[in-house]
């Protein structure tokens, strides 16, 4: 079993903390849905909570498709669990991608970090 220091976990959490605009949702077999800045915002806190604000009507396939507070946990340096669904995540500069088994046509969520 691999053990990570609390410093490593804290850094991973700190990288995710902030407000993120959902820019696209690829449901796998369906058509990609693109969103404008401010349509859907996930505010990720260091206390393992995500506050979702929807200003548009969304697909029922979209994870966290209602306004409210949800939970997440860092699993590893490239995996996160959101409401008990495990995602691989990629964080490159100000872009966050959550991937749920994309090699098998799983979903892909792409976010852009909100500038402070």
Largest sheet: 8 strands, antiparallel, barrel
Global shape? globular
The number of strands is: 9
Described by its quaternary structure, the protein is single chain
Helix content: under 10%
State the strand order across the main sheet. 1-3-4-5-6-7-8-9
Low-confidence stretches: 1-9
Provide the residue-averaged pLDDT.
87
What structural category characterises the helix and strand content? mainly beta
- The radius of gyration is 14 Å
Please give the count of helices.
Answer: 1
Terminal CA distance: 38 Å
Strand portion: over 45%
Would you list the SSEs in sequence order as H and E? HEEEEEEEEE
How is this structure best summarized?
By secondary structure, this protein is mainly β. The chain has one helix spanning 6-16; strands spanning 18-26, 33-34, 40-44, 49-54, 68-76, 79-82, 85-92, 95-99, 108-113. Mean pLDDT is 87; it is low at 1-9.
What does this structure look like?
Helix content is 9%, strand content 47%. It is built from one helix and nine strands; from the N terminus they run αβββββββββ. With 116 residues, it is mainly β. The protein is globular, with a radius of gyration of 14 Å. A hairpin with an 8-residue loop joins β8 and β9. The model is unreliable at 1-9 (pLDDT under 50). It has an eight-stranded antiparallel beta barrel.
